[in-house]
């Protein structure tokens, strides 16, 4: 899939970014009504396909088509490293991020198999040559320039021709910034938001909670601005996922979000505008405990709950066949008139 030619400086500064986030594009009500009209004629009791019907309407609303399609589905994994990982907040060292990126490129990871099965185009975006952010317990994770550059990198990674975008990430230690970001946006502390990530033992959990609480204390004065929270407590791959989500909104592309890190990365868009994530669905409920709480605060119910805690867009891509099934029913079922019923 080719990189889109969009190079306009949408993210020239924080003020222009904030203005864009506070005025998100709307969905297509004509498409929604036309989809509802066809659903009412199909050979089934009204509403009997449950969330499958809602998903069809959601796809059509954001694709702006009365007959949605899933011919071009893109999965993007954004990879980055984190300065706070040096404090031992993860069970794995940071160099595993690069090793996993190579595994993705060699076709050996779970996401390669899921992407092939779901028929999605898989893209790996390695950010800042995997140089880590600053340690957010000591200073902001990123300065304004780096934060905006990561947003633009994410924005330009999305093909405007995509019918559906699946997001995911790779970054050792990135459940720590996800927990800190969630606490700063919605309240609470490290104990309430931190989970065991990729297999933390009790000692690593103590270090993780301590790092989150120290970061919250250091940056608390900036908590009135969701974008400053994302810059100070986020990471390269989290900012890029936010940029990709904004691009999808601009281009009329529905988005499937992966687990806790992915959902936390885009949560500032919901705080900036209550409809900021209306074009997104959380694909699965992560085993990371903060994810269930975060999904509720974003007024979303994950599509799947299979105990996944892998990241790397595994949950978002796994939900693609579910959406294909929803479309198959909507477009393939006979109407009562066609079936000679009633």
What does this structure look like?
This protein has 342 residues and is α/β, with parallel strands linked by helices. It has helices at 14-21, 29-39, 51-63, 95-105, 110-118, 144-156, 175-186, 190-193, 202-219, 226-233, 236-251, 260-272, 289-297, 314-318, 320-332, 336-339; strands at residues 73-79, 121-126, 164-170, 255-257, 280-282. The chain has a five-stranded parallel beta sheet, with helices on both faces. Helix 2 runs antiparallel to helix 3 and helix 6 (144-156) packs across helix 11 (236-251). The longest helix has 18 residues, at 202-219. The radius of gyration is 20 Å and the shape is globular. The N and C termini lie far apart (47 Å). Residues 1-7 have low confidence and may be disordered.
Tell me, what's the shape?
globular
As a percent range, the share of helical residues equals 40-55%
Strand adjacency order, main sheet: 2-1-3-4-5
User: Could you give the order of the helices and strands?
Assistant: HHHEHHEHEHHHHHEHEHHHH
Computed CA radius of gyration, to the nearest angstrom: 20 Å
Task: List the total number of helices.
Answer: 16
CA-to-CA gap between the ends?
47 Å
Class from helix and strand fractions: alpha/beta
Secondary structure tally: strands: 5
Low-confidence stretches: 1-7
Strand content: 5-15%
Mean pLDDT comes to 95
Sheet having the most strands: 5 strands, parallel
């Amino acid at each position: 899939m080719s990189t889109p030619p969009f190079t306009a400086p949408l993210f020239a500064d924080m003020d222009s970014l904030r203005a864009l986030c506070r005025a998100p594009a709307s969905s297509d009500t004509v498409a929604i009504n036309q989809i509802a009209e066809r659903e009412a004629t199909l050979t089934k009791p009204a509403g009997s396909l449950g969330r499958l019907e809602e998903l069809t309407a959601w796809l059509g609303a954001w694709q702006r088509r009365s007959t949605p399609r899933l011919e071009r589905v893109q999965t993007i994994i954004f990879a980055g490293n984190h300065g706070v990982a040096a404090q031992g907040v993860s069970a794995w060292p940071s160099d595993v991020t690069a090793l996993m990126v190579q595994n993705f490129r060699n076709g050996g990871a779970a996401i390669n198999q899921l992407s092939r099965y779901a028929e999605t185009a898989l893209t790996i975006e390695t950010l800042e040559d995997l140089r880590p952010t600053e340690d957010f317990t000591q200073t902001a994770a990123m300065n304004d320039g780096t934060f905006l550059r990561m947003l633009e990198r994410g924005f330009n990674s999305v093909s405007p021709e995509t019918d559906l975008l699946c997001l995911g990430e790779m970054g050792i230690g990135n459940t720590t910034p996800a927990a800190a970001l969630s606490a700063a946006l919605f309240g609470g502390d490290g104990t309430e938001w931190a989970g065991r990530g990729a297999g933390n033992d009790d000692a690593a959990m103590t270090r993780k909670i301590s790092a989150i609480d120290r970061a919250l204390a250091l940056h608390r004065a900036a908590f009135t601005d969701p974008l400053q929270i994302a810059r100070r407590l986020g990471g390269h791959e989290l900012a890029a996922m936010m940029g990709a989500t904004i691009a999808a909104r601009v281009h009329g592309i529905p988005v499937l979000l992966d687990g806790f890190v992915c959902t936390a990365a885009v949560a500032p868009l919901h705080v900036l505008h209550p409809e900021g994530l209306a074009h997104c669905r959380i694909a699965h409920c992560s085993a990371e405990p903060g994810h269930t709480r975060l999904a509720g605060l974003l007024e979303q119910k994950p599509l799947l709950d299979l105990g996944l805690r892998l990241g790397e867009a595994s949950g978002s891509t796994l939900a693609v066949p579910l959406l294909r099934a929803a479309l198959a029913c909507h477009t393939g079922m006979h109407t009562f008139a066609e079936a000679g019923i009633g």
